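Input sequence (206 aa), recorded before submission:
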Amino acid sequence: MNIRRCGDQALLVDVGDTGGIDAVLGLYSALSDPRPDGVTELVPAARTLLVRFDPAVIGAGELAELLAGTEPVPAQAMRGALVEIPVYYDGADLAEVGKHTGLGADGVVEMHTAAEYTVAFGGFAPGFGYLTGLHPKLHLPRRATPRTHVPAGAVAIAGEFTGIYPRSSPGGWQLVGRTEVPLWDPARRPPALLRPGTRIRFREVR
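Predicted structure, token format:
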């Protein structure tokens, strides 16, 4: 674990390649409940956790010592809220994904709905969550040529992640389905439905 200053009100914790997403999520969970005095925000990413703090409450050195001594919560012990997402599995790339994996379209749907996912971190667009837990057989690269327009609600896979496009945008992930669940609502508190640590199950809608 490497801890670096990030401005005068944040520390960046880098878990390295050996720790990975599970280590980031475990550290995020350990610091979230309860959140240490003076810590104002936690922002997880693929290999790092940004910890913002109030210098009037806790100093950078004291916080760095606290972080270094924090034991990440084991992955199997993380039990965030469970959100069920109904999905129409009619994505433009579903047949191609079925062909590349050897599962066929029905097999892809069965495997995608069988797993329980965890929101590892957000990014790309407001409301977009990178979901871990995708079966290795569904680990496929991004499309060689990204689409200039992906509709809001598109359910997709790329690499080790699955995710849902919260709004219309360009994108290069493999599209397997779509949902009508709103992922980002400024009037909702918090506005993002998919927050780090949240557990996700996909349910097929016919």
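Checked by second reader. The radius of gyration is 18 Å.
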